[in-house]
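Fold this sequence, please.
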Amino acid sequence: MSLPLKDYRTSIPEAVDLWLDIEAQASGKDKATIGREVLAVWARAKAHAHKVAARRLQANGLQPELFGDEPEDDGRPRKGR
């Protein structure tokens, strides 16, 4: 069972559109599938980088909010409000 899809539209440069066409033709997939795959790879890389950063900060006794991140930035409400 696949996850439900969200609609996302954006403008892209002509060269990127051309590369999507090329990749779609070469792989036998449509451009939307190629775009989803590219974004999925990007999201996994960002998630991995976040985990690495959190471990390194913790190993050095630091907390992310020391760099200006507010607790509510992660979707949780601040305590004491």
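The chain has a mean pLDDT of 85. The helical segments are 14-27, 31-59.
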